[in-house]
Design a protein that fits this description.
By secondary structure, the protein is of the alpha/beta class. It has two domains: 3-78 and 262-274, no CATH class; 92-259, Glycogen Phosphorylase B (Rossmann fold, 3-Layer(aba) Sandwich). The chain is 41% helix and 14% strand. The protein contains eleven helices and nine strands. It has helices at 3-16, 35-47, 56-65, 92-96, 115-125, 161-169, 195-202, 217-220, 233-242, 244-259, 261-274; strands at 21-23, 50-53, 73-76, 104-109, 131-136, 152-155, 173-176, 207-210, 224-227. The strands form two sheets. It has a six-stranded parallel beta sheet with strand order 6-5-4-7-8-9, with helices on both faces. A three-stranded parallel beta sheet has the order 1-2-3, sandwiched between helices. Strand 7, helix 7 and strand 8 form a beta-alpha-beta unit. The longest helix has 16 residues, at 244-259. The chain is elongated.
């Protein structure tokens, strides 16, 4: 959470004499925060009864940077949907956009604000092979308004969780693009904190992600391909499709062992019951 939110939440918790648990969905480092607010953040965080982090790496970083004592409870809960990994094969996007069923869908979830998104959409307009690019987002950002074409589609429908799982399962590969030109400290620890990664894996999709250190576990564990250039995406998709069952099997096993939300929340639930 932003430092000022944590600071004022701590003040309210102190006044009402209620427990405070800090959830870091964003990490602010000294490079993008003033010392004044860093000090306030540390003071408030040290008074919290527990912390929720999205990966072990982020937990270690926050414990060190905010000078949390060894007795401070940190619960690591991956940013992933509940349930086990399962792909419910269907043709949701094919039917929504009248895409031939033999086309292979590459899905990009979430924000379309990154310049890389426009670059990808521009490239996809010229694809003449089996791939079609679909964006699932809450609103079509201006950079996409003129880019929808035969091989590029954008779905703005707000979907409930079950509907999102069905939609994602109709794609074959998930796409994750991150800025490598203006990386902030917290971005270097994105990894499991990427919500789109958790959704892709929950629905059994191998992925193509930006080549950053925090995502290289994807290739180490056979979960997909990392690319340093967007133009490499079709070739990466070819590689995945050539061994699709291999990648899909790895994704399912990895999610169920490392990212299963239900398994990681049990200790936190026990703490909440104790209040």
């Amino acid at each position: 959470m932003p430092q000022w939110d944590l600071y004022y939440a701590g003040k309210v918790a102190g006044l009402l004499k209620i427990p405070l648990i800090c959830l870091h969905d964003e990490i602010f480092t000294s490079k993008n925060a003033t010392e004044f607010w860093r000090r306030r953040e540390k003071d408030a965080h040290q008074k919290a009864c527990a912390t929720i982090e999205l990966s072990e790496e982020r937990a270690d970083y926050v414990r060190r940077e905010n000078e949390l004592g060894p007795d401070h409870k940190i619960f690591v809960i991956p940013n992933a949907p509940a349930g086990t990994s399962e792909r419910l094969k269907n043709f949701y996007y094919h039917e929504a956009f009248d895409i031939p069923r033999d086309k292979i869908l590459l899905l990009h979830l979430g924000s379309t604000r990154s310049p890389k998104t426009r670059h990808l959409a521009n490239l996809a307009k010229g694809w003449d092979g089996p791939y079609v690019l679909v964006f699932q987002c809450r609103a079509t950002h201006y950079i996409l308004k003129d880019l929808q074409a035969k091989h590029v589609h954008c779905n703005r429908s707000v979907l409930p969780n079950s509907g999102l799982n069905r939609a994602v399962s109709s794609a074959s590969i998930g796409i994750g693009l991150y800025d490598t030109d203006n990386i902030k400290g917290g971005d270097l620890m994105m990894g499991y904190a990427s919500s789109k990664l958790g959704v892709y894996f929950r629905n059994g999709l191998p992925v193509i992600f930006t080549d950053q250190e925090c995502f290289r576990f994807i290739e180490r564990h056979g979960l997909g391909i990392c690319v340093s250039d967007i133009r490499q995406i079709p070739a990466a998709a070819d590689k995945i499709m050539a061994r699709y069952d291999f990648y899909a099997k790895n994704v399912k096993a990895y999610f169920n062992e490392k990212l299963n939300f239900d398994l990681y929340t049990k200790p936190l639930v026990e703490l909440l019951k104790s209040f």
